[in-house]
Amino acid sequence: MLRLYGIPTSGNCYKVELLLKQLGIPYEGISVNSRQGENRLPEYLAKNPFGQIPALELESGVVLAESAAILVYLAEDTPMYGQTKLERAEILKWLFFEQTRIARYIATTRFWVRAGQAEANASLIEQNLKLGTDALRIMNTHLEGKTFFVGERYTIADVALFTYTHVAEQGGFDLKPFPSIQAWCQRVQETDQFFPLPGA
Amino acid sequence: MLRLYGIPTSGNCYKVELLLKQLGIPYEGISVNSRQGENRLPEYLAKNPFGQIPALELESGVVLAESAAILVYLAEDTPMYGQTKLERAEILKWLFFEQTRIARYIATTRFWVRAGQAEANASLIEQNLKLGTDALRIMNTHLEGKTFFVGERYTIADVALFTYTHVAEQGGFDLKPFPSIQAWCQRVQETDQFFPLPGA
């Protein structure tokens, strides 16, 4: 059975758990609590030298890292990944956008705000609010007249982008100016086997 | 013919140009000078709403964005991408690592240093030097006993990681503690049709 290392409240872990559940793939969750530094312990680094959660251990013992790469691995032979070369490029484009903008500007800011570290990071948060809002604007414009990000169906681009976007307001971002994002978040939450991000 | 928007001195553009040359794919380069803000002009944003370079326009008129997604698109049917599901996951893992660590910590720092903006960004540079060096250590350990990053052959993981790594010292990083990285950089520079990063 697949083994997923991480904690359920981590957005990057949640993306993988949500996909596993929605694809009906059984797995065993193994707690690696990054908030207690367990991701820096030698026994975990031996499995995943990147030192991040999540990591996915295959039955062969091979350990995959980077949540977005894991999403592609799991979805590759399903309609949740691209069916054509162009669809795959579009989905990958959004996965890179998510990691370099949404995770970087929105997830980080939400983490600081919830951990009581907003004051200590005030100048970075100011910049993140601007750059994160720019990213939300790009998403909102893209979604106008569409149901999902790529190919008019629910894919791993939606799984990845939904996670930190739907809780952006917990980081001080305003979703009211972005009705297409709000409607899309609602559609994601109505997909089969959806479950909410724990602790959000 | 494919059209590549960007400037040759941008590392993210160079990755795509290097791959195009090495795969023997003809293309037309169209200058979009991000240092003069041309990536924010309405006519460019109409092509690439992400507002970044590079972007690749296909003969159909479709425009691809995000350099790493473009690399996958171009290499998908060649030995420079993964031949198995596991190889593809490994290559994607390194592509995400490159964008979230090497491009973020090393490329940004090199840019500031070369643009005379090191003092204005001193505290972020201090953090970037630490986190970028952590990333180099992960790469160096991975490369021990290997010729290239994935599958013992030259792939787009190498193209992406090479670009900002081989000029890391221009940003104040020290490559001397990382002999496996240095030997790998040499091997990349010996691949067929390699050409150096302009202006580096």
Automatic annotation (TrEMBL), chains A, B:
Pfam name, any one: GST_C
InterPro entries in the record: Glutathione-S-Trfase_C-like, Glutathione-S-Trfase_C_sf, Glutathione_S-Trfase, Glutathione_S-Trfase_N, GST_C, Thioredoxin-like_sf
Q: Which residues belong to any copy of the GST C-terminal domain?
A: 84-200
Superkingdom of this protein's organism:
Bacteria
- Please report the stretch or stretches of sequence annotated as the GST N-terminal domain: 1-82
PROSITE patterns, per database record: GLUTAREDOXIN_2 (PS51354), GST_CTER (PS50405), GST_NTER (PS50404)
**SUPFAM superfamilies annotated for this entry?**
GST C-terminal domain-like, Thioredoxin-like
What is the similarity comment for this entry?
Belongs to the GST superfamily.
What's this protein's name?
Answer: Glutathione S-transferase family protein
Biological classification of the source: Bacteria, Bacillati, Cyanobacteriota, Cyanophyceae, Thermostichales
